[in-house]
Structure formats: structure tokens, C-alpha cells
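Shape matters. Shown next:

___
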Amino acid sequence: MEEKTTDKKHRDFMELVSPEKSTLLQKLEWEVKNQAWLDLSAKISMRLLDLIDESGMEKSEICMKLNISATYYHRLLKGRENFTLETITKLERLFKTKLIGVYGFEKEKKQILKPKKVWKRK
């Protein structure tokens, strides 16, 4: 009797199992490989949510000003979009704030703009 029960459980289980191979391992490998930019994307998306809230702008207005679709708007806010520099620049201009920076550039820029000291001979 027990053998029949085990066979039935096995058949029931096999009916639930997909015949297609799982892609879970490939997805996990992709996550690990792309973790650095995914982290940045999530941070940018969280900042965008704050900026949208602070601005009081509606989704349709933002989409129109950025010239993007509502679908792309939602992708930007999911935190898994590989933002282009063009998109980041558009967002920075719209919200009048910086979302990313280039390490060391601000320091170099200040040095370039700083007036040079003129030495006088005595």
C-alpha cells in the first residue's frame, strides 16, 4: 500500500514540475556580475522617487519633459535600469540637481578656476 502512495506522490509532484530547464542559476550569475551598476541604479531610483515627490510633478508631466514613455518612466524607478548618461543628464536638468559625479573632477575644476598667484620681484 505504501509503495502505491509513494508512486502517486511522485506522479503528482512530476505534474507540478516544469519540463523546461530552470534559468535561476543564470539569473543569479547575471546579478552577481552586474551588482555594481545595479546598486547604483537602485540608489539613483530612490533619489528620483524623492525628487519626484518633492517636485509635485505628475508622471505625465515628467514623461513629456523628458520625452520618454510611461513604460520607460516605470523602468527608471524600478532600480534595475542601466541608466544612460543622456538620461541622467536629462533628469539632472529637470530636477536641477546632480545625480552622479566624476571623482576628482570637482577638485580639479576648482583648481583650474582659481586665480593664479602672481609673484612680484622685489
